[in-house]
Amino acid sequence: MRALVISGGGSKGAFAGGVSQYLMQELHYKYDLFLGTSTGSLLISHLALNKIDKIKEVYTSVNQYSIFSNCPFVIQNKHGVNSIGIDHWNVFKNFYRGSKTFGESYNLLKLIKQTITKEEFLELKNGPKEVVVTVSNLSLNTVEYKSVNDYSYEEFCEWVWISCNYTPFMSLVRKNGCEYADGGLGNMVPIEEAIKRGATEIDVIVLQTEVSHLNRMPSKNAFSLLTNMFEFMLDRIENQNIRIGKYVANHNNAIINLYYTPTILTTNSLIFNKEKMSKWWESGYNFAKFKNTETSQIKIE
């Protein structure tokens, strides 16, 4: 069984889309299992349906308003570098309404329902491929994996949305008596889960560089400090997930093909810039082409 696993990474998901496009359209890889976390969960349903052009259009046209119903920050551009500042009014409104988070992401839920139709959902559910998204159950302190085969259309769309909710900047969802948030808080790269579900060869797209090249600038405000802290923690989680995945693969005779980003795409994956995301999609496609061409040359030699 062959699986495609896509990590979390916010706007960097555009790069993963480009890699996936090359693997599926040029190398003609056929996947039985699609497993994603956060931004990866947004991609996998469309990839499983082979609707690559459709999801490419979405990823290369979204902006902050496509994601946030109440955006808690403003984007500041100084000397060509984007940073975020607190939108005090929006944050105040959210707390005044009784929300537990700085911002809300209900627009993303609407976007998911607009891009995945009920007919497409039924095609997935009745088809041979399995699509699984990762969510974090904060109440039970566990990571859960939600398969398209187990839920209705409305429920599955909500699980995809929950997988992407990067709290405390996006919505915290209470469901079935528990509080749920971004799957990346528990498992950024669910390689181990793919192997548990029977995968013997796994293509893994990791939305960070293989070796750390980053030296973060000093935090300018509370929000930039929070995002830096979360990015630090998620990087550590991601590295641990990959190590565990490799260990489990070795003990189950599974093959892992890792695709890291060759360069740092952004220092803040909550900023959705259409022009940059279009370039990242093309970069992902070209990187996968280069990586596989290079591998073929090595094998021949």
Description of the molecule:
The structure is a single chain. By secondary structure, the protein is α/β, with parallel strands linked by helices. It is built from eleven helices and ten strands. It has helices spanning 13-26, 39-48, 52-59, 64-67, 88-96, 106-115, 118-126, 153-164, 191-196, 222-250, 274-300; strands at 2-6, 33-37, 73-78, 81-86, 130-137, 142-147, 173-175, 178-182, 201-206, 255-260. The strands form two sheets. Strands 1, 2, 5, 6, 7, 8, 9 and 10 form an eight-stranded mixed beta sheet that branches. It is globular and about 50 Å long.
Notable traits:
about 300 residues, alpha/beta, disordered C terminus
Largest sheet: 8 strands, mixed
Strand content: 15-25%
Radius of gyration: 18 Å
Structural class: alpha/beta
How many helices in DSSP terms?
11
Instruction: Please estimate the helix content.
Output: 40-55%
Distance between the termini: 29 Å
The total count of strands amounts to: 10
Mean pLDDT metric:
90
Q: Outline, from the CA principal axes? A: globular
Element order: H for helix, E for strand: EHEHHHEEHHHEEHEEHEHEH
Which stretches of 5+ consecutive residues score pLDDT under 50?
Answer: 297-301
Outline:
By secondary structure, this protein is of the alpha/beta class.
SSE layout and pairings?
Elements: E1 2-6, H1 13-26, E2 33-37, H2 39-48, H3 52-59, H4 64-67, E3 73-78, E4 81-86, H5 88-96, H6 106-115, H7 118-126, E5 130-137, E6 142-147, H8 153-164, E7 173-175, E8 178-182, H9 191-196, E9 201-206, H10 222-250, E10 255-260, H11 274-300
Parallel strand pairs: 1-2, 1-9, 2-5, 9-10
Antiparallel strand pairs: 3-4, 5-6, 5-8, 7-8
